[in-house]
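Reposting from the mailing list since nobody answered there.

I have sequence plus structure tokens for a pair of proteins and want to know whether others read the tokens the same way I do. The first protein:
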Amino acid sequence: MAFFPIFLSVVFVVRNQSSHIEELLSNAALGISNLVSDYELILVDNASDDDSVSVLKNLTGENGPANLQVYALTKEVDADTASWVGLENALGDFVAVIDPMADDIDFLPEMLDKAVSGADVVFATNAQKVAQSLAYRGAYIVFNALYKRFNGIHLAIEAPQYRVLSKSVVNFILQHPQPAMTYRHLPATGGFARVNLNYSAAPKISHNKRLGESIDRGMRMLVSTTRAPMRLVTSLSMFGAVANLIYSFYVVAIGILKEDVAPGWVSMSLQQSGMFFLISLVLLVLGEYILNMASLSNEGPLYHVGQEFTSARMTRREKLNIEEVASVPAPITYQEQAA
């Protein structure tokens, strides 16, 4: 087995897995201790309502696995937010995020090999998926198609949950106002050197995802990571304003050129078109204001230095701790004066 001289942080997110936690951590500690020079196991309990917290308290005792940190959440959150709880508390040179019930930890050496070779982000996609309901699969296809259209990446394929991130990527995400929201897509869209790998392993436990929560999460991700939805609103408002303005000129032209116009039609039409014109203008201004405020609240760091190189020879270093003293002419002796 390959050995990597790095400090690795491994983040697990679990919920209601009290009967599997001890075996999971024991196997992870055994495999990872032989894989890297130093490591830590970070387990985030996503508000379990079984006795998981009690089990975890016992595991952090003297007889439990080494280098274990446990974060027990008070309320259930989505998988990305729970993963970020572990990521922002990780200290390793590289951080691996694993769903222990769906991802194969035995594939981690292949991911670390790419990470140590220079990839800032390594994604792994499992060919074997957990079976979901027909409604969920339909919503899943629609969301990924929209996200691909707006942001240029297919989240499920190009930015799956199973990933290894370098510390520089984690620090970059930390600079964002909403790191838990951008954690999912930013490693794939931030311009980092990334590698996508594929493997096949049967998930340990099949757990159905809740459609309502997934739709809510998807909508928030679409709105917070792209301007397209709000830009569509402002475009429709502008179209409405221009269309009503053109219609007003049409009504005036009809009133002038036609003689058999129904009484009151011109004034009523102008009134309605003017009202809708003003409403469209108000919606346009409000849409642009909301878009600007959303952009400011979601704005991340302006730049990220991917690599930095320094010359092997720096002339300023040669002058450090050297004091330059101006030369003083030697005093003239009495014999020299006499001469």
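The second protein, same order (residues first, tokens after):
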Amino acid sequence: MVVAFMVMFVAGIALSQAMSDPRQVTLRWLRLGGLIEISLLTVAGVVWTVTGEAFGDDRGHAVVLKVCSVGLAFAGGCQLMLVQRGWRLAQRIAATVGFLTGAVLLGVFLLRYMPGYGGVTGLLAGVASCAPASGLLGGMLMTMLLGHAYLTAGGEMTQDPFKRLVVMLGVLVILRLVLSVSVALWPWWNQFDHAGFEAMWDTVMIVARYLVGLIVPGVFIYMTYDCVRRRSNQSATGILYVAGVLVILGEGAALALLKSTGLPF
């Protein structure tokens, strides 16, 4: 799951860069995102090579995972090189490809932990779960870093890119909540036996997953947007710090629940 968590961050960073108008943000911010992507992919590659945790026993899945992994690394490298050249539109395209490749990679990876889902249905459930989760993880990080960028490059940017990313986070947290309830919480409520210690522990984790990982961050995202609208960028950045930590805890709980229940919370 360590590999999946890092790939989520990478895909989310790519989404943030793809959603941002490259003419409204600084090349330094885009370059920083590319450097973080490459660093996380390097660490994930080392863990993947040592443990082999993401391959599984199915040869078809292993081939798709390898192809998507190469594609994600290639897209991340291209995005960073294009930023270095100052080619803003081309790097946006590379970031879009990186996000889509990362979402498919995560969907295939999670498929091995979801015995109740199979084939195309399982892949779609995995991608639908991972895409907004990745956007929240990487998006929180890059939005917070954009808030920091206003301290040194405030004269180079308007409030528009900050607002755009905060709105993106708001849409993603709602989408993540709706999809998680529909593909995970509802089946769990109807199909699982809720008696016994293990079921009680899962219940505690589920409450924490939604309260800590989605509902409270959703409130903080609204507070952040209000701060950005008032041009209080330092306050917005501080709120994003806390919201980012809560999202990390929530998505960590979701991955733990995936292993124990087989459902993409």
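Reply #1 (J.P.):
I read it the same way you do. Residues 119-153 form the longest helix (35 residues).
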